[in-house]
Amino acid sequence: MPRLPVRDVPAAVLRRFGLPGVVLFAAVLCDVAIIAPAALDDTGPILQELWLLPGIAAITACALWAATRPAAAALTGAAVLLLSSLGYWYGGIVSYTALLDEITFAETVAGVLLVYHVVLALPPLLAACVTSVLVVSTVIAVVVRTDLFRYPQLMGATLFAGTVLLLLAVLVAVLHRQPRQRGAERSATATLLRKQWPLVVVLAALLFLELFYVGSSGIFSLVVLLCSFGAAGTALLAPHSPLWSSGFYSALVVTSGGILRVTDAGSRYADFEGLPISQIVSGMAVVVFVVRYGPPRRTPWLIALQSAAVAVVVVAHLGPYGRAESFRILFVAAALVLGICVALGMFLRARDSERARAVATAVGDAQTAERMALARELHDVVAHHVTGIVVQAQAARMLAAQNPAVVVDALGQIEQAGTDAMTAMRRLVRSMRGEAPAGASEFSEQATTDLAADLRRLVTNGNHGVPTELELDLDGVGALPPEVARSALRLVQESLTNVGKHAEDVTGAAVALRSTGEWLHLRVSDDGRNSGAAPRGDGDDTSGYGLVGMRERVDLLRGRLVAGPLDKGGWQVEAWLPLTGDTGRRDSE
Prior knowledge:
By secondary structure, the chain is α+β, with helices and mostly antiparallel strands. It is 66% helix and 7% strand.
């Protein structure tokens, strides 16, 4: 079984588990990053904190299982949460505080996912019962792991945070249950988020780290946390709506900065001069996306708005008497970060433009190649049958006065040629409508697997009444490449069509095909007399595009074509088609 490249692992995880799975995976990593150092420090028995990992792994598995079996996964998750809490209490193992007191990041995200899948998939009454079991088990787990009744100030923050998470999970699940919701918009948003999974992982990790400070910072810190979540949302949706994202981000930054400035949450909340780290990263992402996707005329004003919002927060946090040195350092750092984000956005915008031009060029080339292929099909196949009709009609007109019975035979042959032409036209129409079998040429019966047999049939039935000799020397060649055999058959077909269309007083034609080393040599000649000044398809309106099409076929195979009059009279077409090696671009029919 082939191994998956390392660079494709995140994309594979995203396809398998979706964005909720990625966020859950980030939460588990945060738990491990916190538990591993704590297990090796000098506080308490060594490696004691590692006993938290089995419970985290078990409830994470339940959250992933909930996508297929929500009821069983939710009840199992509730049991896991209760049993792990009893084990921690009995063993004296201390967890750590995230958004919910003593409930880890992974346990919090897993609980939200369990509620979401339960409300999304189960009938309302059953969903309410299972959700109640999850809520009660979470409350019992918090009470068992901590002595909340001894510290009532922590009870309020935990209950408030838990209620907010519960309502958000239920609300999102109910919205996804609504049949009137437009699936196309939902799919567009999901696709947009999937394309930005690195930013999702980074912002999720930073928001999880912010949760660590909420439990001990009071109610106002929850409002700041919601502002951080909103800023992360604006960053993720900025490619879709850069103007609104920039405005909402500025409002959220000013709101959270004001709360940190005027309340006591600022003394216990992790921030950098009034700005949480997640909001700084979100702002950088918004700037990049505004420069990349925003209208050029409005981009400077949007960046100025964001910069002013950040500057107001920083200045308010430092105060009017802040040290000049601090202002100078912050200004230089902010200008450097802003310049990097603008440069990255301009680079991505230029790359998008280059890709758009490349795609447009490729589409144009593909359309041109398809038109040329259809033109060759029309000329080589349909025109072949129409030429037979014209030749038969001319012969009948010339012989009608001498022998009227000939007209009846000629009409039968004209009818057959017309039927063949209609069949070829129907095949071509099916090709243009996309109704041909996958991988098959629309004129696959004209493409050959037995070139000798097809040439004999063509010389017998498709030579427009001109006596034709066939000479084949393909011994030792083996199976011809399909594109070479198809092109050889079409070259002979077109050459015989030109004999019937342009040659006068022709008494015979000769077709010779032989292999010479690495080349297939083809020669078609006649002894007729050319008519008109533009013989054999030079590309004008009187002669058609026969020779042009033949040259295109040969050029696609990197072969060689020579066509012209013979010294003794008549016309000859010679072509050399490669049998081995790089044949270049193949025939596109």
